[in-house]
Design goal:
The structure is a single chain. With about 325 residues, the protein is of the alpha/beta class. It has two domains: about 190 residues, Vaccinia Virus protein VP39 (Rossmann fold, 3-Layer(aba) Sandwich); about 110 residues, no CATH class. About 25% of the residues lie in helices and about 15% in strands. It is built from eight helices and ten strands. A six-stranded mixed β-sheet has the order 2-1-3-4-6-5. The protein has a four-stranded antiparallel β-sheet with strand order 8-7-9-10, with no helix packed on it. A hairpin with a 4-residue loop joins β9 and β10. α1 packs across α8. It is globular, with a radius of gyration of 21 Å. It starts with 17 loop residues before the first strand and ends with a helix.
Length: about 325
């Protein structure tokens, strides 16, 4: 039975090796990564109703809503706080308003929880644009706040394509330890074979729904020229990061462009594979974020694409979590 009301009881027993909370949970990417190592999620929060529905389907638990409306005193004690806090205020794809955007101020809600609950470790994720926003002042503020709370702070930009996922997804990860004696070394890139082909359903036949006929004609216009230039590499999947009549960016290196929430706006931002004459499917996009085949999604395609684009690359978080647990 799906749990509608989370049990805040301090007597609640957990079987996990460690406890964690999942803030701005989305569809549960962080949770999947930490549960792989025996973690027990004791609290989750997500405001988007569509993401909450898919989270509930997969974890039998409905996340709490607006983080601002949650009584911090009722959040269970935990070892690790996870949060992929909203990135739109700092993203190149957004307006880069940072802390002037109400979503940007949600970092300060994380700060309040950390100050009250004092977890052993804090794991945060955001777009790499966070580092340079407002000439670096936004990022400096975040680091200073975490440091003043008594944490050793480490950060690094990691690309999912370096961890066995054929997607060019650069994100900044911030890892903080309450134990000042800990020096954290981020995981090194794996040497796994990394090709888009391994996640594609080659027999799948999909029409490029959501993509205008004008855009498709624009692609075909440049197709023959590309074929001549590609030569022997032509058998590789060819991706178009933005299918628009005025712009056509083609990739043939077998790595998907970064999946974004904009995939949920009409389909024009869903990568299009010329060889197969279709866009990436929902399942293929899930694979590009490292979700298991058993992961289920419900609701409209546009919402599903959006939620996947908003999620995280699970294998990267798994690699970081393994390093964290070695220190804890």
């Amino acid at each position: 039975m799906i749990q509608k009301n989370f049990d805040f009881s301090p007597q609640k027993k957990t079987k996990g090796k460690f406890k964690f909370i999942d803030l701005f949970a989305g569809i549960g990417g962080f949770r999947i990564a930490l549960e792989k190592f025996g973690g027990e999620c004791v609290f989750s929060s997500e405001i988007d109703k569509n993401a909450k529905r898919n989270y509930e389907i997969n974890f039998n638990e409905e996340p709490f809503g607006d983080i601002k409306k949650i009584d911090i005193n009722k959040i269970p004690s935990h070892d690790i706080l996870c949060a992929g806090f909203p990135c739109q205020p700092f993203s190149l794809a957004g307006y880069r308003k940072g802390f002037s955007d109400t979503r940007g101020t949600l970092f300060f809600d994380i700060e309040k929880i950390v100050k009250k609950k004092k977890p052993k470790c804090v794991l945060l994720e955001n777009v790499k644009g966070l580092i340079n926003h407002d000439n670096g002042n936004t990022f400096k503020t975040i680091l200073l706040k975490l440091s003043k709370l008594g944490y050793n702070v480490f950060y690094k930009i990691l690309n999912s394509s370096d961890f066995g996922i054929p997607q060019n997804r650069e994100r900044i990860f911030i890892v903080c330890f309450r134990n000042k004696s800990i020096y954290f070394d981020f995981p090194k890139p794996s040497l796994k074979n990394n090709s888009l082909k391994k996640i594609l359903d080659k027999k799948k036949s999909l029409s490029p729904s959501g993509i205008s006929k004008i855009a498709v004609r624009h692609v075909k216009k440049h197709f023959e020229n590309y074929k001549k230039k590609a030569g022997k590499k032509f058998d590789q999947p060819v991706l178009i990061t933005e299918i628009r009549p005025s712009r056509c960016s083609i990739r043939a290196d077998g790595i998907s462009p970064c999946l974004t929430a904009k995939m949920g706006t009409g389909g024009n931002n869903v990568p299009y594979i010329i060889n197969y004459k279709r866009v990436l499917s929902i399942r293929e996009c899930l694979r590009l974020q490292g979700f298991p085949e058993t992961f289920e999604m419900t609701g409209s395609k546009s919402q599903n694409y959006k939620q996947i684009g908003n999620s995280i690359a699970i294998p990267v978080v798994e690699a970081i979590t393994k390093k964290i647990l070695e220190n804890l």
